Amino acid sequence: MKCSECSNEDPKCINGVCNSCRLKKWRRDNPEKVKAYAKMRQVRDVDKIKARQKISSNDYMFGGNRTNVLERDNYTCQTCGTTNKNNTRIVVHHKDRTGWGKKKKDKNNSMDNLISLCVPCHLAVHYNHRYPQRASRPVHKASLEESP
Question: How many Å apart are CA 112 and CA 108, to the nearest integer?
């Protein structure tokens, strides 16, 4: 049977409308129910959503190597030596600055190009790179070296 809305062949058409078109129309006609359901899912599935975001972020940003780099560097900042135990977050940094604003295939996510830094040192690396004449904080050479 052919859908009267989209003209696609669908054997499960109900009253001449396929399931996809019927749901689109229902969402369009009931925006308050759609919003309420989305809010309810955000609250109900918060742990599931955060876990999924962390996995996809790790894969996209670091090619799945984020945890490997943190373990290799023993969750320690390679600039100042701060550990994760000091209530300072440890992040992963691309030495060659391909981590942000690049497509996944253009990023250099090799283990040699990734380094663990605490947030203050990570900010200093980017600040010193952007404004070298105003470099306020000395940064360890390892965090600035670019991979070949």
Answer: 9
Q: How many other CB atoms are found less than 10 A from the CB of residue 121?
A: 25
The answer to whether 4 and 16 have CB atoms below 8 angstroms apart is: yes
Checking 64-68 for CB contacts under 8 A at 24+ apart, the result is 64/109, 65/92, 65/109, 65/110, 65/111, 65/114, 66/92, 66/114, 68/111
- Separation of alpha carbons 82 and 139, rounded Å: 14
Give dist(CA 35, CA 95) in Å, integer. 42
Distances, alpha carbon 15 to alpha carbons 8, 19, 28, 47, in Å: 14, 10, 19, 40
The overall pTM is greater than 0.90: no
Mean pLDDT of the chain: 81
Measured N-to-C along each axis, helices 46-62 and 31-44 cross at an angle, to the nearest 10 degrees, of: 80
